Automatic annotation (TrEMBL), chain A:
Pfam (any one): WD40
Keywords, alphabetical: Cytoplasm, Peroxisome, Protein transport, Repeat, Transport, WD repeat
Protein localization: Cytoplasm, Cytosol; Peroxisome matrix
PANTHER family (UniProt xref): PEROXISOMAL TARGETING SIGNAL 2 RECEPTOR
PROSITE patterns: WD_REPEATS_1, WD_REPEATS_2, WD_REPEATS_REGION
Gene3D superfamilies given in the database record: YVTN repeat-like/Quinoprotein amine dehydrogenase
Organism of provenance: Sphagnum jensenii
Keyword check for Transport: yes
Biological classification of the source: Eukaryota, Viridiplantae, Streptophyta, Embryophyta, Bryophyta
WD repeats: 70-88, 100-142, 143-185, 186-228, 230-272
Domain EIPR1-like beta-propeller, first and last residues per copy: 150-262
Family statement drawn from the similarity comment of this UniProt entry: Belongs to the WD repeat peroxin-7 family.
Predominant subcellular localization, coarse grouping: cytoplasm
Keyword Repeat found: yes
Entry protein name: Peroxin-7
From TrEMBL, chain B:
Limits of the Thiolase N-terminal domain: 63-317
Protein name: acetyl-CoA C-acyltransferase
Pfam family name, one: Thiolase_N
Origin species: Sphagnum jensenii
Residue intervals of the Thiolase C-terminal domain: 327-449
Keyword Oxidoreductase: no
Keywords: Acyltransferase, Fatty acid metabolism, Lipid metabolism, Peroxisome, Transferase, Transit peptide
Keyword presence, Mitochondrion: no
EC number: 2.3.1.16
Family: Belongs to the thiolase-like superfamily. Thiolase family.
Length: 316, 473
């Protein structure tokens, strides 16, 4: 499967929910420490990756998410605290079609609501999460409870109003946008929690990845005790993601430069595969919803890989 | 700046805590970074200040260079082009910039040719003829420009300015000089009023005398000059041997007439013939000063009298993207300055800082220089005055080895600079072309190989994707 070389350091990769061959890649210059950013849109063709377009931004980009409603809309999370909306159908000079500057620090993640399809979340190092719609230039609401960077906010795939957030304050919080406060609080790890994701087949199951190198699975109704703990990464776990096709399959990437696939139900060893195709911190992963087993990863080594589960990402 | 540093420090710290968690529980607000015991200090980048960071954003209306070619440069009267008409020198390079990029000849808005020695009207005519020989239709206009030794660079700058102004989208800046057919000479009588104006009188000084003036006034010794000459020859010879000029030289099919027998021979000239790889300090030391008793300027440490031509194709970045032509470099700034005519060679020392400043840069940002070696004296002085790293100047030799076809030099240096920058890749972001100008001037231009000119560029056509949703069809 092909590899794409980005000009800057990769931060996030996302499959389009509409076109099976399309990906968005958020990148930052100089490892996202200083410099500009570039949002790529790539098409996977038999001849490898073909850039469809790219958008340059004044500060690094840390995450991106596709609209679930319109195949041409894409949102990027920027280091300058802005959330940028791109419209691939609009001429280049019209982009970004919307630039929303409300967060006072780096925006770490963005996630589109896949049930209601009309809104998206952004989580930021300013300790808050904000709720947005495409139409309104202002955020609808800010969720202020975390006491440190919120690295991830992700919608529940079944309930339109519920989402989870992972923070450096060592907690995962579950929110219902109709409620004023968070509904559950999971003091999940002893160290910063960098990522979380919902199981696509079990509305109560959540996974979290932490600086303590572990991945934990939770039943959100029982925040005191995790269901399982997955050990194997040798540095902080940067991203975790449940498979959209297989209930017990999940994917993770880490500062140990590897991408791992796990089956939490496997009797003996939950670690299915450890992929060492990146040569720098692996920070972005995604699993295609349209093609079962199609996986993508990006890293600080300025590469994007797409491969079929079971294959070696580097195999041409 | 302080703000930027803080942001950098904050980001570094957040990442460091992921890798080396200091405390088990985080209860601190992001704002309170400064009070942290984790010390992250900003230190100068190991790659130096000239590291390849972009200083400007890429805009679609940037003027970019997509092709830059030259002929070989041959010694006047004895070299490969001694029996070649000037228009036959210019035509191949004009043709090359069009053919290699696939631009249609009729799309070119103007051709500007820098040329110095030939009578103005005749040269303008010859250039127009050269355009026809190169296959341009009658609809494409041609003009000449004369700013002495910087005419070629001035032509490139004029085209860049016209594109910026919106006169046209695609233009060619070129340079042409056949010092075989047009030797340096003064025609007619000199206005006797020059007696009353020292500066005006100094304009009449032979160039070699101005070189002696520079050497004397700024203390550039004979040894230093000869050393510069040896370096120039060595570098040019090495570059030729390594095939570095192959990317920029367009072979010229022409004839050579044997001076004794009168026999005509068809030849293809593709190699500079002025380079003397075996030049040593000892050889040069034997040469006599030409312009002054006990002087230091010799035939060995002055630029050669040569024939040659060069052409540079410029267009808006938007046009290059639309056509899918890879960008060779971006034209960032140009200045011409005036200096004392008696020491005209110091021009680059004044022009370079101004051009660099106009581009929003500092001298230390520049990764490569092409400074014309009119004379080793003035070249050495300029490099020393600006405290430039010798390893960054004329890395493939200069006019002492290659030759100095006056009007072509500016465009020739541009071609050499951009091709070398391309070879050096990402680490070579900014380059400068500069030269001194007879009658006391200097010119300099800054070129950039930005992020989008790297081979990973997005400069490719989006052929069959109109980016509209499927429903819109």
């Amino acid at each position: 499967m092909p590899m794409f070389k980005t000009a800057f350091n990769g931060y996030a990769v996302k499959f389009s929910p509409f076109l099976e061959s399309r990906l968005a890649v958020a990148t930052s210059q100089n490892f996202g420490i200083i410099g500009s950013g570039r949002q790529y849109v790539l098409d996977l063709t038999p001849n490898g990756f073909v850039p469809v377009c790219s958008f340059d931004t004044p500060d690094g980009l840390y995450d991106c998410t596709w609209s679930e409603d319109n195949e041409n809309i894409l949102v990027s999370a920027s280091g300058d605290g802005s959330v940028k909306l791109w419209d691939l159908a609009a001429p280049p000079m019209a982009n970004p079609v919307s630039n929303r500057q409300e967060h006072s620090h780096e925006v770490a993640s963005v996630d589109w609501n896949m049930v209601r399809k009309d809104s998206f979340l952004s989580s930021s190092w300013d300790d808050t999460i904000r709720l947005w719609t495409v139409d309104s230039p202002q955020s609808l609401r800010a969720f202020v409870e975390h006491s440190y960077c919120v690295y991830k906010a992700v919608w529940n795939p079944r309930h339109a109003d519920i989402f989870a957030s992972a923070s450096g304050d060592c907690t995962v919080r579950i929110w219902d946008v109709r409620q004023p406060r968070s509904t559950y609080q999971i003091p999940g790890h002893e160290m910063e929690i960098l990522s979380c994701d919902w199981n696509k087949y079990n509305e109560f199951m959540l996974v979290s990845g932490s600086v303590d190198k572990s991945i934990k699975l939770w039943d959100v109704r029982n925040p005191r005790q995790e269901l399982t703990r997955l050990l194997g990464h040798t540095y902080a776990v940067r991203q975790v993601k449940f498979s959209p096709h297989q209930e017990s399959l999940l994917m993770s990437c880490s500062y140990d430069m590897t991408v791992c696939l796990w089956d939490y139900r496997a009797p003996e060893d939950a670690l299915l595969a450890r992929l060492a195709h990146h040569t720098e911190f692996a920070v972005g992963i995604d699993m295609s919803t349209l093609v079962e087993g199609l996986l993508a990863s990006t890293a600080w080594d300025e590469t994007v890989f797409v491969w079929q589960q079971g294959m070696d990402p580097r195999a041409a | 700046m302080e703000n930027k540093n803080n942001k950098m420090r904050l980001r570094q710290q957040v990442l460091l805590e992921h890798l080396n968690p200091a405390a088990p529980a985080r209860r601190r607000a992001v704002g309170g970074v400064a009070s942290s015991n984790l010390v992250v200090s900003s230190s100068p980048c190991a790659a130096g200040d000239s590291a390849p960071y972009p200083r400007t954003t890429d805009f679609l209306d940037d003027v970019v260079i997509v092709a830059a070619y030259r002929t070989a440069i041959c010694r006047a009267k004895r070299g490969g082009f001694k029996d070649t008409f000037p228009d036959d020198l210019l035509a191949p390079v004009l043709k090359a910039v069009i053919e290699t990029t696939g631009v249609k000849a009729q799309e070119v808005g103007d051709i500007v040719v820098g040329s110095v020695l030939a009578p103005g009207a005749q040269r303008a005519n010859e250039c127009r003829m050269a355009a026809f020989f190169a296959g341009f239709p009658e609809t494409v206009p041609v003009r000449t420009v004369n700013r002495q030794c910087s005419s070629g660079l001035q032509a490139v700058a004029d085209v860049a300015a016209a594109i910026k102004a919106g006169f046209y989208d695609i233009g060619i800046g070129a340079g042409l000089e056949s010092m075989t057919s047009n030797p340096m000479a003064w025609e007619g009588s000199v206005n006797p009023r020059v007696e009353s104006n020292q500066r005006a009188q100094d304009c009449l000084l032979p160039m070699g005398v101005t070189s002696e003036n520079v050497a004397e006034r700024y203390g550039v010794g004979r040894k230093q000059q000869d050393a510069a000459s040896v370096t120039s020859h060595q570098r040019a010879a090495a570059a030729t041997a390594a095939g570095k000029f192959r990317d920029e030289i367009i072979p010229v099919h022409t004839k050579l007439v044997d001076p004794k027998t009168g026999e005509e021979k068809q030849v293809t000239i593709a190699v500079d013939d002025g380079i003397r790889p075996q030049t040593t300090l000892a050889d040069l030391a034997k040469l006599k000063a030409v312009f002054k008793k006990n002087g230091s300027t010799t035939a060995g440490n002055s630029s050669q009298v040569s024939d040659g031509a060069a052409a540079v194709l410029l267009m808006k970045r938007r046009t290059a993207l639309e056509k899918g032509i890879p960008v060779l470099g971006v034209f960032r700034s140009f200045v011409a300055v005036g200096v004392d005519p008696a020491v005209m060679g110091i021009g680059p020392a004044v022009a370079i800082p101004k051009a660099v400043q106009a581009a929003g840069l500092e001298l230390s940002d520049i990764d490569l220089f092409e400074i014309n070696e009119a004379f080793a004296s003035q070249f050495t002085y300029c490099a020393q005055q600006l405290e430039l790293d010798p390893e960054k100047i004329n890395v493939n030799g200069g006019a002492i080895a290659l030759g100095h076809p006056l009007g072509a030099t500016g465009a020739r240096c541009t071609a050499t600079l951009l091709n070398e920058m391309k070879r050096r890749g990402k680490d070579c972001r900014f380059g400068v072309v500069s030269m001194c100008i007879g009658s006391g001037m200097g010119a300099a231009a800054v070129f950039e190989r930005g992020s989008v000119v790297d081979t990973l560029s997005n400069a490719r056509p989006i052929a069959d994707n109109n980016l509209l949703s499927k429903d819109a069809k």
